[in-house]
């Protein structure tokens, strides 16, 4: 989908969140000098094309006690990696799941799955669940825990 | 963002129902709070007030559209470096000085620095990674995503 200037203005106006007003899309339309119907139609088209993944509420998992996470990494048979990646991503404790190139000899792993749990023991247990799901398609695996955030900035689209 | 768990009594059953239900989606209708509230058996104004309160308490990180930055035309690449312990602070400063470095984590591994480059184009990824290699004398391993899988992540509130 190609985004035009109006789409980009809508993105810029909503990427910080929707207003907490009874008619939030009308409110966004008012900010931008558009019709409510146009804002809804454009958001809907962006959702259909995948530019918007979903419109939803994201709970702060740290606040809810899900404070441990580990980047699990797996060396999976290339022939089976796509199908198995689908199944790993669908697990409710995995927040990101990607196939990436290996960097041999430094790095033999091609599947990355971020695992979340209440504590490190829970993360380890979930990692075993993934290992069982992967079975003999997995040649090696590891998990990397973060020890420090060195930089964190939001990814924000520039307007226009 | 709040990183500490909320006290056990911070959320009541309705708050939890809201957090659980609205993770899956929010209506794209003229009165979305009214429509979502009806499904939860509460009033529109109660839902708005509770979301406001949840946000103030730090129980919500985001409420609204989630955009696919890549579909909007950006380029991203996960990168990793093996940084000698005695150079770690120096290298952090050099890496973080690049505005293209969106986030950066220290991880317990031989590859102990993991960061994401975010640029307007693929060319920008290479330029930045090479600049970091030049400045630090260390190899920057590039792990661009080949395939992203649909995510079923849910947090039970």
From TrEMBL, chain A:
<feature type="domain" description="Siroheme decarboxylase NirL-like HTH">
    <location>
        <begin position="7"/>
        <end position="53"/>
    </location>
</feature>
<dbReference type="InterPro" id="IPR036390">
    <property type="entry name" value="WH_DNA-bd_sf"/>
</dbReference>
<keyword id="KW-0456">Lyase</keyword>
<protein>
    <recommendedName>
        <fullName>siroheme decarboxylase</fullName>
        <ecNumber>4.1.1.111</ecNumber>
    </recommendedName>
</protein>
<feature type="domain" description="Siroheme decarboxylase AsnC-like ligand binding">
    <location>
        <begin position="64"/>
        <end position="151"/>
    </location>
</feature>
<comment type="pathway">
    <text>Porphyrin-containing compound metabolism.</text>
</comment>
<dbReference type="Pfam" id="PF22451">
    <property type="entry name" value="NirdL-like_HTH"/>
</dbReference>
<dbReference type="InterPro" id="IPR053953">
    <property type="entry name" value="NirdL-like_HTH"/>
</dbReference>
<dbReference type="InterPro" id="IPR040523">
    <property type="entry name" value="AsnC_trans_reg2"/>
</dbReference>
<dbReference type="Pfam" id="PF17805">
    <property type="entry name" value="AsnC_trans_reg2"/>
</dbReference>
<comment type="similarity">
    <text>Belongs to the Ahb/Nir family.</text>
</comment>
<dbReference type="InterPro" id="IPR050684">
    <property type="entry name" value="HTH-Siroheme_Decarb"/>
</dbReference>
From TrEMBL, chain B:
<dbReference type="InterPro" id="IPR036388">
    <property type="entry name" value="WH-like_DNA-bd_sf"/>
</dbReference>
<comment type="pathway">
    <text>Porphyrin-containing compound metabolism.</text>
</comment>
<comment type="similarity">
    <text>Belongs to the Ahb/Nir family.</text>
</comment>
<dbReference type="Pfam" id="PF22451">
    <property type="entry name" value="NirdL-like_HTH"/>
</dbReference>
<dbReference type="InterPro" id="IPR036390">
    <property type="entry name" value="WH_DNA-bd_sf"/>
</dbReference>
<dbReference type="Pfam" id="PF17805">
    <property type="entry name" value="AsnC_trans_reg2"/>
</dbReference>
<dbReference type="InterPro" id="IPR040523">
    <property type="entry name" value="AsnC_trans_reg2"/>
</dbReference>
<keyword id="KW-0456">Lyase</keyword>
<feature type="domain" description="Siroheme decarboxylase NirL-like HTH">
    <location>
        <begin position="15"/>
        <end position="60"/>
    </location>
</feature>
<dbReference type="InterPro" id="IPR050684">
    <property type="entry name" value="HTH-Siroheme_Decarb"/>
</dbReference>
<protein>
    <recommendedName>
        <fullName>siroheme decarboxylase</fullName>
        <ecNumber>4.1.1.111</ecNumber>
    </recommendedName>
</protein>
<dbReference type="InterPro" id="IPR053953">
    <property type="entry name" value="NirdL-like_HTH"/>
</dbReference>
<dbReference type="InterPro" id="IPR019888">
    <property type="entry name" value="Tscrpt_reg_AsnC-like"/>
</dbReference>
<feature type="domain" description="Siroheme decarboxylase AsnC-like ligand binding">
    <location>
        <begin position="77"/>
        <end position="149"/>
    </location>
</feature>
